[in-house]
Amino acid sequence: MSEAPETSPATSRRTLLCGAAAVLAAGGTVAVTGCGSSAGSSDSSSAPKGPVDLGPASAIPEGGGKVFREQKIVVTQPTAGQYKAFSAKCTHAGCIVDQVTKEQIQCPCHGSRFGIADGAVQDGPAPSPLPAYTVTVEGGNLKVTPS
What we know:
single chain; 147 residues; alpha+beta; four-stranded antiparallel beta sheet; 1 helix; 29% helix; 33% strand; globular
């Protein structure tokens, strides 16, 4: 019975040290892999290919907008019946914007804010406006095509 307490801490220390080494090794691999894959994936998945049907135009509030996170698109309606579409990928660090409030498209990562009418930077650190997409309403549904 006295062996259990002595063996258990030794095993725990050994397990902890081995686990820490594995985490550090894996972390380095993940960091290197993450750097390589993000550069490659941003080119292939930064914009949808072809027209994307985003559902009813009535889902976009006047003076506001909606983020379509999966498609990486944000659609706004600055004035009644006028729809604008932009990339939802912030031009600062590539985060996906998360909301449209107070007539601004907002990025949660570093506080960048963009205008709903033109995607222009209203508050940094974003260096440039959100890329604009072509948006049309067909049969009451929004169709967005990257420009």
